[in-house]
Amino acid sequence: MAEDTLAALRSLMSSHSPPLHALVVPSEDYHQSEYVSARDKRREFVSGFTGSAGLALITENEALLWTDGRYFLQAAQQLSKKWKLMRIGEDPPVDIWLSDNLPNGAAIGVDPWCVSVDTAQKWICAFAKKQQKLIETSKNLVDEVWTSRPPAEANPVVVHPLEFAGRSVEDKLKDLREQLLKEKTCGIILSALDEVAWLYNIRGSDVSYCPVVHAYAIVTLTSAFFYVDKRKVSSEFSSYMEKNSIVLRDYADVSSDVVLLASEQLVSVKDEKLAEAMINYPIWVDPGTCVFALYSKLTGDKVSLQPSPLALSKSLKNPVEIEGLKNAHVRDGAAVVQYLVWLDHQMQEIYGASGYFREGEADSKKIHKAATKLTEVSVSDKLEQFRASKEHFRGLSFPTISSVGPNGAIIHYCPEEETCAEMNPNSIYLFDSGAQYLDGTTDITRTVHFGKPTSHEKTCYTAVLKGHIGLGNARFPNGTTGNVLDVLARVSLWKDGLDYRHGTGHGVGSYLYVHEGPQQISFKPSARNVPLKPSMTVTDEPGYYEDGNFGIRLENVLVVKEADTKFNFGDKGYLMFENITWAPYQKKMIDLQLLASEEIKWLNNYHSRCREILAPYLNDSEQEWLNKATEPIAA
Predict the structure, then answer these.
(1) Nearest to 448 by CA among 557, 554, 545
(2) Could you tell me which of 405, 343, 377 has the C-alpha nearest to residue 545?
(3) Whether residue 513 has pLDDT greater than 60
(4) Measured distance CA(388)–CA(381) in Å, rounded
(5) Residue 556 and residue 505: Cα distance in Å, rounded?
(6) Which of 168, 227, 365, 427 has a CA-to-CA distance to 315 between 20 and 30 Å?
């Protein structure tokens, strides 16, 4: 099937005008989303690689796929022999590879609706060295050969109530327009789905695990527009938009309206000063989220390319959002504990495991029946059931990473029912999961063993835990970026010559994306761009992965807050983290000799808080289990 797809695409490439020497197939959709709907998974369709990040390149004779360190192992397993894996950070980037491997004047095709302004401009610059050209295809060639492509769904747009949003649309538009004037811009084109949803206090279900709707927005100094498939709009929603002075337009109209905006014909302005600003000021475009197709309709000198102001505004959670996130994480923590109680019992009953608390080999005489076996998928389904019983639950926030033994080394492993592993009492089990609640989005990872962990496994787990504690306890001056803090999570691993290939932390949305920017904690240069600020969320998730053996990761969500320090050098003010995730760490996985007394004190305090916070959500037997899981460790 994959070979037929490549042959069909190469046929379209050769018949294209001009003929294409290469075709780039990005992962992103028309909004540069990380997670995309089923009908937008074009790169997955052509390559067979299911990870969320990657880029496919098809030439006359080769097929290559670029992805990052989270997916090296997964991609190597999923790609056929027709494909070559290109490891980001180790192999040349796609633009350099094309420049080096294709002839002078080569034509490289891409759908301009699936590539950002930043990326397109970078490629154009790189290709110019050999007079190569980036060709904007008028149709997406993958869509032309994807005969079974899922149809577009007409899922309704819904209003996100003020009791959960915490700020009115009127207030958000007022702030945005003040920023437009401050930057001397006349309007902004918004492409990022979570930014549109946040600004207009709306949600949808167009993308699995992400409560967003496929839509664009244009906001000027005097007007606001919302571009959406009108089949998704109810009369009540139309009234809501009208009440907020937002003009409803059809999704496809954004293209022609951008042209009108560029020629000052989209809106009429009576105020003379604003009218003058509309004529003289450029249009704000975020080069990282706006697609090249829309940018191409603007005049270069009438564009201000800079990050969207909404990315930062959205990341600074208001008090209602903070309270909602805390409440969501308490309910979510209760679901995780209930899951661990259930799983502990099942592993002992079915597999003769020594269990969550005791160390020992599984009882080999206790043979389970095939009808009652547990798999990575069946246990993750049970976890979802526990979450679904909680107030305000709306679904998972990403596909649960439920991984046994060697599968844990696949950093973003996604088990499939037909091929997933059976639970194993003698192997490490890693589960990274989260949910969407009306009052917040959650993301948590725990790693456990229901048998007897090896000394090496304990050493690795403890190194990860030490980094997790070290970052979570950090205090740092205002203006500090996540790039500076990233090392705190790695230094304990580095002491043993260990490391991990992914970033350490990402922002988390308020009933929005589980991966939210612009803040991040990472070794990547992009983590230098935005300093951490009070009321931002960020995850703390170091790990270690041993190919063919196991994976270990621990993850909590943190909120940045002001710190009360003894001194205030430079009058900068200092910041710290507040943990909002509650679930125990497995004590039998810890080599206590490697923990400092302060780390043991932190662990005991954290476990004490877990008992106190989660108790009201648990029954007597669950509380008894949690009490045992969180008993103080002797220093």
Answers:
(1) 554
(2) 405
(3) yes
(4) 10
(5) 9
(6) 227
Q: What average pLDDT does the structure give for the chain? A: 95
272 pLDDT higher than 70: no
Reported confidence tier of residue 330, pLDDT bands at 50, 70, 90: very high
Taking residue 182's Cβ as centre, other Cβ atoms within 10 Å add up to: 9
Separation between Cα atoms, residue 281 and residue 178, nearest integer Å: 14
What is the reported pTM? Answer: 0.94
| Greatest Cα-to-Cα distance within the chain, rounded to the nearest angstrom | 87
Q: Give 3-state DSSP helix, strand, coil % of the chain, rounded to 5.
A: 40, 20, 40
3-class DSSP assignment, residue 314: helix
Q: What is the pLDDT of residue 95?
A: 92
* C-alpha distance from residue 186 to each of 118, 170, 270 (Å): 21, 18, 15
**What's the residue count for the chain?**
635
Concatenating the DSSP letter of every residue in 400-423 gives: -EEEEGGGGGSTT----TTTPPBP
Condensed to tens digits (0 to 9), the pLDDT of residues 44-66 reads 999 999 998 999 999 999 999 99
Tokens of 85: 């894996």
Task: Tell me if 511 sits within 8 A of 211, measured CB to CB.
Answer: yes
Comparing 4 with 536, the larger pLDDT belongs to: 536
How far apart CA 568 and CA 321 sit, in angstroms, is 29
Amino acid, res. 3: E
Q: How far is CA 188 from CA 25, 284, 286, in A?
A: 27, 5, 9
Is 418:514 a contact under the CB 8 Å cutoff?
no
Angle between helices 597-614 and 319-351 (to 10 degrees): 100
pLDDT at 377: 98
pLDDT digits (tens, 9 = 90+) for 181-206: 999 999 999 999 999 999 999 999 99
For residue 518, whether the previous peptide bond is cis, meaning omega lies within 30 degrees of 0, is yes
CA 28, CA 235: separation in Å to the nearest integer? 32
**Least trusted range by pLDDT, from 311-315, 570-574, 611-615:** 570-574
pLDDT at residue 166 is higher than 70:
yes
Which of 419, 64, 507 is CA-nearest to residue 410?
A: 419
d(CA 242, CA 259): 24
Q: How far apart are CA 116 and CA 287, in angstroms?
A: 6
Of residues 525, 524, 559, 523, the one with CA closest to residue 539: 559
Give the model's pLDDT for residue 370: 47
User: How many whole angstroms separate alpha carbon 314 and alpha carbon 316?
Assistant: 5
What is the residue whose two structure tokens read 């043991």?
Answer: 600
Residue 475 has which token pair? Answer: 């205090």
47 in Cβ contact with 79 (< 8 Å):
yes
pLDDT at 629: 98
The answer, yes or no, to whether residue 233 has pLDDT greater than 60, is yes
584: DSSP letter: P
582, amino acid identity: W
Burial of 139 (0-12, 13-18, 19+ CB in 10 A): exposed
How confident is the model over 493-501, as a mean pLDDT? 97
Q: How many whole angstroms separate alpha carbon 472 and alpha carbon 237?
A: 42
Q: How far apart are CA 198 and CA 184, in angstroms?
A: 23
Phi first, then psi, for residue 186 (nearest 5°) are -95, -15
- Give the per-residue pLDDT at 271: 65
- Between CA 375 and CA 378 the distance in angstroms is 5
- The average pLDDT across 64-83 equals 92
With beta carbons less than 8 A apart as the criterion, state whether 583 and 446 touch.
yes
> For strand 107-110 and strand 22-26, is the pairing parallel, antiparallel, or unpaired?
parallel
- Three-state DSSP state, 550: strand
